[in-house]
């Protein structure tokens, strides 16, 4: 009989204990979820803010950025050089080329590079045809990147306008697009340093000379190069460019550092 009383008590105590554990677990789970959401919102705002104010930095930092890839001939060479130099860069990819060569983007992502959005078509007549077309170009590119790297609902939150925001062409359309980007939680960035690899056919030594000239009096460098060879081939001079920047005291970062 005594055993029965004890076991009744035990059942009640155990029951209360379970209820208590359940309440604590639910509360912790709920709190954790809220914390996760608010953290990611805070870090996204921080990211956008940091990107928009990047070129005001006081430390010598170089952000290598490669536009218009992936390109089956050039991008793997760029990745090989970055790997041997242990540098993480940023690739502003064109969505339609991501769909053609997802394996290259996957490699870049897995090697720690930041994959950012440079529109799907790189065709201004499509990109600025309407707000809907602009949004579609961003989303289709994100989707292509997500498919390539195996991340569902991928968004880089970072866009570069084809030809740059600063280029005079389509100025008012680009102004309007910045509002759309803001609504999509997207930062956008041009560059402040370049070797002019897309302007005319330069020799490797001239590309390096252009870069040396372009970095003068700057601490934060956002360097524009192309992982294509439409005009000049930056991949041929990448190692020398990196060595030079290192010799000048620059530390290399990509846009993950803005989080
Ligand atoms: Zn471009």
Key features of this structure:
259 residues, 9 helices, binds zinc ion, alpha/beta, TIM Barrel
Précis, in short:
The protein has helices at residues 2-52, 75-85, 95-100, 102-110, 124-127, 131-149, 171-183, 204-214, 238-247, and strands at residues 61-67, 90-93, 114-117, 158-159, 187-188, 193-194, 220-226, 251-253.
Helix content: 40-55%
**Which band does the percent of strand residues land in?**
5-15%
Q: Indicate how many domains the architecture comprises.
A: 2
CATH topology of the largest domain, by name, is TIM Barrel
Determine the mean pLDDT: 90
Looking at CATH, the homologous superfamily of the largest domain is Glycoside hydrolase/deacetylase
Give Rg in angstroms. Answer: 25 Å
How would you sum up this structure, described in words?
The protein has 259 residues and is α/β, with parallel strands linked by helices. The chain folds into 2 domains: 1-52; 57-258, Glycoside hydrolase/deacetylase (TIM Barrel). 52% of the residues lie in helices and 12% in strands. It has 9 helices and 8 strands. Strands 1, 2, 3, 6, 7 and 8 form a 6-stranded parallel beta sheet that branches. Strands 4-5 form a two-stranded parallel sheet. Helix 4 (102-110) crosses helix 6. The longest helix has 51 residues, at 2-52. Bound molecules: zinc ion (ZN). The site of zinc ion has 5 residues, from loops.
